[in-house]
Structure formats: structure tokens, C-alpha cells
């Protein structure tokens, strides 16, 4: 069994770089910042339609190759287990995904000189990236947690999985309130609104699973703290956008104008 999964035209610096290889930490990357469900992938697709920048393997793929597989020796699909494994990686690598990404060598014949990356999360990753990789620029995308839950419910992504208990007593509202950390993220009114989504197209178990994904991620990464830090950077290094107020096409246009 291989200790690491390959990434296309990217590698760890186990040997000196070839003539066309450069460290991603030295290239002028445009890095999308945001947690699950804020609209990163949709915005990137719209942005690609406007320009010719290459998009690097996404966060999930880099995590699989650099963090998950070396520790677990297997594929891991459960979101909460993945959060735990990436937390273990961060214990020895405080920059988390930023540190992992910045360590890779890229074949610039394939990726070009200024690729895009989706994405970084949380204060520690963003601060590490800003301090250690001065050529990187950041586009932060945000949306309220209730919107993120609704978006997760609306997308058919097999990666959005968690194992564990689902609603058992027939009272979804009480099950939502009992989730660990839920009261710190969702108001009683938020929980009322989420519980009201239950129906034939939205089973209680699915709704609970999506809320657990949001809560698990929030325990690891604080999007508000990351955004607050980015606001301290010069405007040419950080752009902050609301994906509720802006459509994916408007996000892409704003990024293109800023770039």
C-alpha cells in the first residue's frame, strides 16, 4: 500500500526541483477562503469561464494525498473522521492546509505561473499563508451557517457524509438542539427554521447529518476569525465577498475586476 496518493504535476520536494518546477509557496496563487457550503466550487467554475487560470487540485484532493492517506493508509469519506485526521496533521504542522500546499512543487508547464486554489479555512491557515507566502492573494467567500446547511441539502455530493446517530425520537427540533455545539452556532429561531425543512424531500436523518457537518467544521475552523484577519491585509491582497448578496457570476466578475 502506498504511503501517499499522487497529485497531478505536483510533488513534495523530496529531490531538488527540475527546471520547470517551482514551489507553490513562491508562486502568486489566488486562494479561495471559505468553509463548506459558501459557494467556492460554484464561484470557481464561473471564474474559470471568464479566464484561463488553471485551478489546482482542490482542498479535498490535497488533504487526501498529504494528510489523510499517510495517517490512515486508506480512503476516508466520513466528514467528522476527516476533520479529526486533519486536526492531527495540524498538531505537527500549524499552518494546516496552507503549510501542506505551500510545500508542494508545481510543474509550471502544466499549472502556469499564477494558478487558483480552493481553498483555505480558518484563522490559523489564513494567517500562516499570509505571513509565509507573501505572493499569495486571498478571496474570502462567506454565507450564514443556516444558508450553508440549506446548500448542503441541495447538492448531491457523496462526500457529504457522516456516520453516527440520526433522529430517533421523532422530535427533530429537540435532536437539533441536542447536537454538540449547536447552541453556540444556531439561535433558537435558526433551529426552528431548520426543523421546519423536514419533509419528503428532506428526511430528518439527512438534515441532522448536514447540520453535524457544519458544526464539526466550525469546531475546527472559525470563518469569522479568518475574515477578520483578512480585513487587516492590504486590499490588493484580500477580497471579501458575500455569496448570499452576490450570484456566482457576480462573484466571478468581482474577482476578475479585483485581480
TrEMBL record:
Matches recorded under InterPro entries: P-loop_NTPase
Region (Disordered): 1-21
Name of this chain's protein: ATPase
Amino acid at each position: 500500500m502506498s504511503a501517499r496518493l499522487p497529485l497531478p504535476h505536483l510533488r513534495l520536494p523530496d529531490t531538488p526541483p527540475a527546471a520547470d518546477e517551482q514551489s507553490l509557496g513562491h508562486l502568486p496563487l489566488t486562494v479561495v477562503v471559505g468553509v463548506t457550503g459558501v459557494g467556492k466550487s460554484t464561484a470557481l467554475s464561473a471564474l474559470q469561464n471568464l479566464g484561463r487560470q488553471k485551478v489546482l487540485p482542490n482542498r479535498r484532493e490535497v488533504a487526501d494525498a498529504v494528510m489523510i492517506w499517510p495517517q490512515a493508509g486508506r480512503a476516508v469519506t466520513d466528514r467528522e473522521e476527516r476533520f479529526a485526521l486533519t486536526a492531527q496533521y495540524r498538531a505537527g504542522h500549524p499552518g494546516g492546509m496552507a503549510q501542506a500546499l505551500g510545500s508542494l512543487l508545481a510543474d509550471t508547464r502544466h499549472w502556469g505561473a499564477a494558478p487558483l486554489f480552493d481553498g483555505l479555512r480558518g484563522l490559523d491557515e489564513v494567517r500562516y499563508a499570509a505571513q509565509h507566502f507573501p505572493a499569495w492573494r486571498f478571496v474570502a467567500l462567506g454565507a450564514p451557517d443556516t444558508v450553508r446547511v440549506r446548500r448542503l441539502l441541495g447538492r448531491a455530493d457523496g462526500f457529504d457524509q457522516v456516520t453516527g446517530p440520526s433522529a430517533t425520537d421523532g422530535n427533530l427540533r429537540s435532536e437539533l438542539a441536542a447536537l454538540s455545539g449547536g447552541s453556540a452556532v444556531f439561535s433558537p429561531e435558526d433551529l426552528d427554521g431548520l426543523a421546519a425543512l423536514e419533509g419528503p424531500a428532506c428526511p430528518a436523518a439527512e438534515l441532522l447529518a448536514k447540520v453535524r457537518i457544519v458544526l464539526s467544521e466550525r469546531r475546527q475552523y472559525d470563518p469569522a476569525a479568518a475574515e477578520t484577519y483578512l480585513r487587516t491585509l492590504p486590499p490588493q491582497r484580500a477580497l471579501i465577498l458575500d455569496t448570499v448578496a452576490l450570484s456566482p457570476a457576480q462573484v466571478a466578475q468581482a474577482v476578475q475586476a479585483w485581480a
